[in-house]
Amino acid sequence: MGIATINPATGETIQTFEPLSDAAIAQTIELSQHTYETYRTIPLAQRSQWLSAAADVLETNKDAYGRMMTVEMGKPIQAAIAEVEKSAWVCRYYAEHAEEFLAPATVETDASHSYVSYQPLGIVLAVMPWNFPFWQVFRFAAPALMVGNVGLLKHASNVPQSALAIAEVFEKAGFPKGAFQTLLVGADKVKQILTDDRVKAATLTGSEPAGASLASTAGSVIKKTVLELGGSDPFIVMESADLEAAVNMAATARMINNGQSCIAAKRFIVQDSIFDAFAQKLVAKYAALKVGDPLDPEVKIGPLATPTILQDLQPQVQACVDAGGKILIGGDVDALKQTLPSNLQAGNFYPPTIVAEIPLEAPIAQEELFGPVAMLFRVADVDEAIRVANHIPFGLGSCAWTREDAERDRFIRDLEAGCVFINSMVKSDPRLPFGGIKRSGYGRELGKEGIHEFVNIKTVWIQ
N or C: which terminus of the chain carries fewer CB neighbours within 10 A? Predict the structure, then answer.
């Protein structure tokens, strides 16, 4: 697929874009470097003012930006607008707190004065995904720009209008030309950009193969990277949990962004004594979800972002069944299409689906299913719940539902993930660091830890 906006609900090509030439890429990098040389010296107070203005631009245009996202990648319109609002939040958060996070830290030594200083690195390349077209970018850009770095965005090729709009947000907010630029290029140009001596670091949110490729390239030229990759997050429910609250949140947690979220709950691990009741209630929740045009405010499940995702998901569900799993609801694309209007027949729709009783040893049990499909696993106790939860190569997020303090403490200690949420769904928050372990990546975004990822942590010693 080239660089194009293709409405995933209808299959209609809205607009196509020509990728930048090598000469245009070189000019973009040159402008970034030229801008950085002065931008790095601009006081934090001025950067904060610009970032606050970016939040204003986002909030003023949230309906238009939300619609743009929905048309490009199928996110339900209410969720798209909320994503723009969250992007404004992260801008305001770092505008207000960056000075505190970047303040020199005095350390008592035998020097007359010694301290740690946090200074910018230069140009940072951001390779970003389509599933949260605004939020993923702004959670990188807000702290990076406050530090004094400048950003280059290589966005996913199916959200070019969002990519261009984000660059315009920073321009409208008053940031210097070249402080944040969008590169409309294919993945084949990432190596060329990253190996340019003027580009100092990179961050990527995306698939494991994409992350491995970027990290390999960066490693060959000794450059810092942060990776946020896939996940197959466990959603554990013990018999001590508030069952109604857990079920209500389970439907929401799995269906974030039509099920296309790295931190969506994907594996529901339920204690045997309440398994049947949980499954029955979750099926009822799924049956009530309205599937259709994501621009309709009443619709909860829109299309998958691309035909490829749909083509990949169907055999994964079949693999669950072939391994012994039982479909409790959904799984039939043809049946779903019969319920959709004619203008949506070419869309990438997949029905909300639940598959239970998949053997733990089945290879599919360790894969990430990127769509509105939940896998249910039955366990006897907390020990087995933890074993099943950790029986995957990923370690992004996790959540557990329990009212027992001992169980809570076990989950916090023993779940192998970058975050553990107790009696709540996993979500990213500007105030807290976010990232994974194992094959879900490394490094952290957001919080104080996130702003320190792309800085020179400089030791200063004065005799």
Answer: C
